[in-house]
Amino acid sequence: MKGPMPHYSALALLRARFQGAGFWKPLWTGRTLQDAYDVVVVGAGGHGLATAYHLARDYGLKVAVLERRLVGYGNVGRNTTIVRSNYLLPENHYFYEDSLRRWEKLSSVLNYNVMYSPRGVVDLCLNDGDMIAAARRGNAMRLAGIDSELMELEALERFAPELATRGNRRFPIVGALVQRRGGTVRHDAVAWGYARAATAFGADIIENCDVQGLRTEAGVVIGVETTRGFVKANRVLFATAGHTGMVGTMIGLPLPIETHLLQAMVTEPIKPLINSVLIYGHPGHGETYILQSDRGGIVMGGHLDGFPSYTREGQWHRLEDVVQGAVDMLPQIGGLRILRQWAGTNDMTMDGSPIMDRIKYDNVFLNAGWCYGGFKTIPASGAACAQLVATGTAPDIARGFRLSRFATGHMLDERGDGPFPVRL
After folding, report:
1. Residue 39: which residues within 8 A CB-CB, separation 6 or more?
2. Model pTM greater than 0.85?
3. Is 197 in contact with 111 (CB distance < 8 Å)?
4. Half-sphere exposure of 12 (CA within 13 A, CB side)
5. Does domain 28-113+182-256+350-424 have CATH number 3.50.50.60?
6. Which of 108, 126, 185, 370 could form a disulfide with 374 if both were Cys (CB 3.0 to 4.6 A apart)?
7. Could you read off the pLDDT of 266-295 as tens digits, one per residue?
8. On the CB side of 379, how many CA atoms lie within 13 Å of its CA?
9. Distance between CA atoms of 103 and 105, rounded to whole angstroms?
10. Where are the domains of the chain?
């Protein structure tokens, strides 16, 4: 480009915004709800938007995404942005690895920067038992072609010097399991990128539209009842994250899911300190994981509150446990101030693994129960769920997520929330 870049004053930008001069164009809002669609997706979170994108792009279907509030208002905008595939069970690590590989290319695919940062995920080991469990998981990952490194203390000190492992610590650190390709992705950019891309392929994203029920004829669902009227649909997908139990109640199908809150918080910004994602499963306060955001704040979270709730209110005992764990891990952050706290509503299944299947009717589908792993799996979940909805058959990597496993006893018992959920 020749010549200087154009300069716009704040007043000019505001005037352009409100006069419609083209500086900001709505990318997914302002769509008109049509009378009928091939697929209605209920929920404009990460999984709903990704599924709608693949349904429109890969299968050419006419899709509507109905959201009771706003795009990105739910869990896709209320998480700690971590992505990884360091799981033990094949049904999980293959699926999460498919997602991680898609994360690596997603900015190019969507033509929207989702800020994937492969900074590394470090599961810290505090004793020999942790190291044995880490070796078991790491070996399973490597046999599946997934990167994993078991680091003893010397290597860990080089990878994460901020830990100061040789100091006087309450719980000594003896090593770690590291996945270098794991890291973070900007959560709101994921919502915006998928919404923009789905809209570009013809999907209608309708905000402030609450689905209140299904309409059936001769045992088949013919559409959804909404606060904006009836919408005809050949197929319906529910992807409502922490509100899946309410969906089950609405359609008269009890689901093996509870809603629990997961707390997180962020400190005031500081100079760069933490280069990776550190996960610390300590006996005093449970699990704590921390990372440093691009703004400099220390983001931290931990276990669930421990009881069902939809409130999204902070629980002081959980916040205290997380902070104490973070200070145990990195004593040098003890003087920082907490700027804000938030909570996400988590779909928790009995075995800690998701459900992707038909429910009650042949043309009604569910994508839910992602527990702690919902954000990590958005790209793989969108592609797999779109195949299930469009063709009626799930891909091989998602067939272990059938609802029927709870009746047959084929559980996938891997919570995936802490460093080593399966201990020896």
Report:
1. 52, 55, 61, 62, 63, 64, 233, 234, 235, 236, 237, 389, 390
2. yes
3. yes
4. 5
5. yes
6. 370
7. 999 999 999 999 998 876 667 899 999 999
8. 24
9. 5
10. 28-113+182-256+350-424, 114-181+259-349
